[in-house]
Write a structure and sequence with these properties.
heterodimer; A: 309 residues; alpha/beta; Rossmann fold; 4-stranded antiparallel β-sheet; 35% helix; B: 251 residues; 6-stranded mixed β-sheet
Amino acid sequence: MLEVSGLSVAFKAGLALRGAALTLAKGERLGIAGESGSGKTLLGLSLLGMAPEAAHVTGSVQFDGQELVGAPETALRSLRGQRIAMVFQEPLSALNPLRRVGDLIAEPLRLHRGLSRAAALDRAAALLAEVGLPDPTARLRQYPHEMSGGQRQRVTIALALACDPDLLIADEPTTALDVQVAAHILDLLRDLSTRRRMALILISHDLRAIARVTDRLAILYGGDIVEQGPTADVLAAPRHPYTQGLIAARPVLSASRDRRQPLPTIPGNVPALADLPPGCRFSGRCPVELPHCHSTRPTGNPACHREAT
Amino acid sequence: MLLSIENVHRRYALPRTHLFRAPPVIPAVQGISLTLDRGEILGIVGESGSGKSTLARMVMGFERPDRGRVWLNGQDSATLPRAARRQTQMVFQDPYDSLDPRRSIGWSVAEPLLATSMTTTERHARAADRLARVGLSPADMARYPHEFSGGQRQRIAIARAIAPDPALLVADEPVAALDVSVQAQVLNLLMDLNRTMGLAMLFISHDLAVVASIADRIAVMQHGRIVETGPTAQIVAAPEHPYTQALFAAA
């Protein structure tokens, strides 16, 4: 359904995304993991033709056979919200504070589906029930500020579902939420994807969140997809040195941890865009680096020169 | 005993909703007692709204408890002279907000020493030493916050906090805004300072795994109360309270 190939995004300072390739089948759940500056949000935005104006996007994004890179704004606009929907990190800024929740969700239904106000509000109540908000009819008359963070995020999900999209892109949907609430929202996203046979792309820095929801996983570092595969396999047996370091650096609950031992870390910091090495983006921080890693870009999956030897 | 918190309460009044009715009140902290020894790391876990930051603010003396006392080194923190307040320093969640963007790193790190009897040369030397201790170079003193990444800024904030040689560091979500690979670096740094300087810590986080990786003891907070407390190994191996178990299930 979605086929991304050679997708690059260039800024003045350098390439923030370098030839990304991904595929996604109907109803499939893909996780995109990376730290800040890895290009994961940019990748999500580029899929919708929403990359910043300063960015130069090349390559191909095919959605149901339709090319989205360079497509006219009108074509993109009719896809967005209808066939591809997006949920962001901060629900409060995604919801108009001056409008009641019912009207917010009814708006796309009236615009895109031509429903009457009453029919749209009925549908909105059904959507609120579907995302697990109790007493949905009463909720229609509430304003976003009257709800908790978790409830608001459920509202943005209901809003995203309004026109029955085939693909939902969720960018850090639970980062602003407490651990327990986040777990509920993640379970909701997974269940909705199963029930509706809706494809899901979950973009997150949190491998725990991605493990909870997705079937496949792509790891992004410095604008490169360094490794992808079935989520359980990548997490259990990571092959790229960056993925290995990332998984080792996660704090884990263990009763036997000796506090005198330091936690494993990845040395150094993510370099600024202009300072990224031309070859493997991870060179300079990699514990098993080869001499040509800095200058020659590795290919394959995982994208690592060690794999080739 | 370095820190002793005795049955503290703190309530906040919300804005009035009716002209003739008393404003609604949020009980943020409802009777908390805790102790912390020199050189110990006590972890506080709880979700947003559990009262953990209010507790931190009372320990720092930013706020007075409505009831109960906070004792620092056997002195009531409500009547503590300013010089003695320097004994407790704080590190915040967002390293982008906690440093003055118009001041050099060297100035920011030395600022807590301005009210002391130290000379300019001594302050400068102390700032250079503290930057070295957090893994930065004394040559960075002339640089400005925007030249550093989030993890480096948090190191600078820590250098500033340890500049006046505090006995207690209150760290409120110090790694929550950092990337995973950087989180572990900062946690290692805090553990290192705990060992080498004997720095005691009140380490506050919503993330049980993060707290368990650094703390000697853990207190779990919910709705302004402590629902479970004990040595880290014990809490991790056999959490007793249903809320603690729920946090484990979500982690």
